[in-house]
Design goal:
alpha/beta; four-stranded mixed beta sheet; 3 helices; 8 strands; globular
Length: 135
C-alpha cells in the first residue's frame, strides 16, 4: 500500500447544512454535489460529506454513538494571524470554537473548531511544517 490518503469522508447529520458550512462558510471548492454526497477539493485529496446513517450502512457498522471520535482534522496555515482568521471564518459560518488559538508547547500556534456535526478541526501554524501551510 502506498502512503497516501485520497479521501476523508465525514458522516454528517444534515448534508445540505454541512455542504453549506464547508462551501459557503469556509470557502472550500466544491468539486461535485448530489443529493447523496458532496466532494471538496483539498489540494491533493478530497473531503467528502455523506449522510451518517448511509455511511455506517455502507461500512456495515451501527451509526449510533457520539462524543470524541478519537481523531481530528488539521489545516496548517502560514502564520499565527492566519490561524485567527480561519477560526473567525469557522465561527461566522456556524462552527463552534472549542479551543481558542494560543502558543503551543511545540513552538507553534493553534486552536480548534467543531463543524456542525462536532468534527474537530485544528487550525495551526507550525514552523516545522511550513511545507504543509495553506492559506
Amino acid at each position: 500500500m502506498k502512503a497516501r490518503i485520497s479521501i476523508v469522508t465525514l458522516g454528517v447529520s444534515d448534508l445540505s447544512r454541512s455542504t453549506a458550512f464547508y462551501r459557503d462558510g469556509l470557502g472550500l471548492p466544491l468539486r461535485e454535489e448530489s443529493s447523496e454526497i458532496s466532494f471538496f477539493d483539498m489540494t491533493g485529496m478530497i473531503l467528502a460529506l455523506f449522510p451518517c446513517e448511509k455511511l455506517a450502512s455502507d461500512a456495515g457498522v451501527p451509526a449510533a454513538g457520539d462524543g470524541f471520535r478519537s481523531f481530528t482534522l488539521a489545516h496548517n496555515v502560514n502564520s499565527p494571524a492566519a490561524v485567527d482568521t480561519v477560526l473567525c471564518e469557522a465561527k461566522a459560518a456556524g462552527g463552534e470554537i472549542v479551543k481558542s488559538a494560543s502558543r503551543t508547547s511545540w513552538g507553534g500556534y493553534s486552536g480548534y473548531f467543531a463543524d456542525p456535526d462536532g468534527f474537530l478541526w485544528e487550525v495551526a501554524w507550525a514552523p516545522v511544517l511550513t511545507d504543509l501551510a495553506a492559506n
